[in-house]
């Protein structure tokens, strides 16, 4: 019930933001209404799924500890750059992906920045937050307004004008390059294809490619075909985007909402307390005390009452079991 | 215990590390071995014991339960998979919650690794890499009937006792004939392992027991 409530409240907040941001729908472009409606459902879906996710013991504890560490005044004084640095290196430039594979890192960066650019343009446009006005009917001098307030004036024929009006095309090229790499990898690479599921692993890539290709075809239609087939392409593109937005909270794309938890985890684990818990048996370091205590509490929540074993290192766990087998089950093998 | 599964007999293990090398060749985690081979009495005897993921059935996969990112999938066939690469945040909960000491973590890559019963092979009916190369049959893959065809009268157990907490697993271990099969195997939780810090008998081979890859802590 709680996830539904949080989802509804989030969707209502977005509706209010759209209403106010578009100056009481004065700037709202009704041709883009399906996108705006899909984004409201997206807001509901993300909030619903996120609330359901953090209701599990492991995620709930990490959520509290992570936010506690991120908002801790003590942490901010001790390591003021830790949070912005982690957000940049971890969420923005995704250094950890480079440690997995440089090619995957590069492809993921293309998709990430492409999607971010597309989202930064599309959502405010469909919500009526961005508007472009011209003093003369056909320009070329335009003013970009955010929430009805003039922000920047530019010439549509200048480089800035070209970039502003072709931002989605640039995003599409980035996304197609990255998603195609991952699609080929999923077809050829046994590491990727082991256990892969069509709906979970392939649909997101196909959706990204379909959205990007149909988006580029819209530009192609207006530039080269004098608008030929534009209406059909527009419907196709809109259907692809709307279905993807509705799918987003429930499939692989949900990792976008989950991934920031890693920053909270890092902050909680390594910034808050420096004390290290050592293996009860051999004295090797296991992890930070705060982390081990949190894990033991999570295990108790889950009725996994062997939580004391979390204070024994993995190697000693195996040695204990092996030595117990050797002394009592098959003596002296 | 799963229908077609791994059965481990530490009594047959000669510590040759063939399983470790073969595991490293697996396509799903190239260059990294997911099997652990521990020398139980270094300097005293040749006793060694291989550890693969035991694919816990009850309680089902503690590693997956404690995962805050819903990254560990348990498929209907009982296989507990390695972490989903798009979800794993590298917190290490699974590494330290696992009572068997199985999962590994690469801190730089923020990624957990563990034995997935060679899903790329077993889902097509092939035996896992470790069982395929084990020269002594210490790691066997098949059904209990197939095992008994090879080793008549052999008994296996697939429950463990960790200080009163009983865990039943998908992977089984050979027990001596005559031992009650429903008697859980000792998890060794109440005991102190003899720390085996002396040099590895296999020369300078990197110990396969290293669960933390990259910069520790």
Automatic annotation (TrEMBL), chain B:
InterPro entries: 4Fe4S_Fe-S-bd (IPR017896), 4Fe4S_Fe_S_CS (IPR017900), ET_IronSulfur_Cluster-Binding (IPR050954). GO terms for molecular function: 4 iron, 4 sulfur cluster binding; metal ion binding. The keyword Translocase does not apply. It holds the Pfam family Fer4. Residues 4-34, 44-77, 78-108 form the 4Fe-4S ferredoxin-type domain. Keywords: 4Fe-4S, Iron, Iron-sulfur, Metal-binding. Residues 178-217 are annotated as: Disordered. Gene3D superfamilies: 3.30.70.20. The keyword Iron applies. This is 4Fe-4S ferredoxin-type domain-containing protein. It comes from Catellatospora coxensis. The lineage of its organism: Bacteria, Bacillati, Actinomycetota, Actinomycetes, Micromonosporales.
